[in-house]
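Suppose a colleague, Dr. K., hands you the sequence of a protein chain of 435 amino acids and asks what its three-dimensional shape might be. Before reaching for any lab equipment, you can write down a predicted structure in token form. Begin with the sequence itself:
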Amino acid sequence: MKLEQKLDLRLAPILLQRLNLLMLPQIELRQLIRQELELNPFLEKEDGEDDELPLPEEIDDWDRYPQSMYEKPEEERDTPLIALKPTLKEHLLSQLRVTVKDEKLIAIGEYIIYELNEDGYLQMTIEEISTALNENKELVESVLMQVQQFDPAGVGAKNLQECLELQLNSIESNPRVVKIAIRIIRDFFDDFIAKDYEKIKNRLQITDIEFVSAIKCIKLCRAKPGKIWEGEPKYILPEIVVEYEGDKLVVSLTNDWIPKIRLSASYKELLRDAGTLTAEEKSYLRKKLNDAKLLLEGIEKRRETITAIAEHIVENEADFLTNKDRSLNLLTLEEVAQVIDRNPSTVSRAIKDKWLQTPRGAFKMKMFFSGGKLKEYTDIKQRIKELVNNEDKSAPISDIKIAELMEKEGIKVARTTVIKYRTQLDIPTAKERRV
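The predicted structure, expressed as tokens, is then:
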């Protein structure tokens, strides 16, 4: 008899449960728990738990919201406040002001953001903006590239083709499929719009499965990214609250909004003394007991993971959160995963659609991350800095030359990427560096 060894990639139920719970924002988690309380007899609310849904407070001033939270007496803060969601432009401006240090670049970025239409597209050309601000086109383009990295993906595009490519570049999974999708949009956009799929597939010389997967990937993108933001609910519930205890910043999960549940003692007793139950009834009860345990364990793991990530964010960004510095030291998924002993994919799921309420304001947890591109955000930027520091100041190296030197070192990087990171490092153009 021939034995065959086969790899099974199916996720265990307990792992799948935890991953699903990890991705849920608090509002959806609350809904799930309330649903499970109705469906699973082994779950019950702890004594004194109120099931009434608190109404969101009307907050007129986004900038003053964080202070209003901390002015409340401790006993009045049993239920976390719900922060008023900023507009698209406010959301983009807040990202600009924490990722760019130079005041001139901030001014250019603000001008660009205010020139976006409600769909998120830039209404002026680079030439028009540079003329209006009396700045060189290269500098304006580098700031625009920075804005195009902001959330939501796709904003700042000049047309639909660029909008789709920006969104595809933000996708972190399925690199082979994403690469094909980007090529379709970049090199065969007219054919894609005309739905001449056979021509595209033949030119790319890819399989039917690869082509279908790439097209599905493209169709996940939004033609109007600005509408996505404006169309979301007006209120958001911060997952984590960061506040002062003395002169120290302390992290706490806003668990008060989530119903506290436990296993039902009476039903556990019923299962133990199951002499009068049929085999089918016993099987049903055992399954419900297992489901209840999985839910409770998943909620606890969710709490531990999100709290650990938030604590690392606060430790890493203490100067920013206490207003000592206006810029962020962006984290990577790999770095945080190593610190909290989780997988990068777990960290990515945990920060999805989660908000952090701090003394400086409410921020998406994702804003504190570079997107997980460790080499891109550390090695490349550091190497650009080294090359500029060691250059001949009478003949400084251009952005193209920097890209060429790095490619010789095995780091392939585009000139536009060099411009983007040079700008983030506050390094002037080669012409401006000449002595």
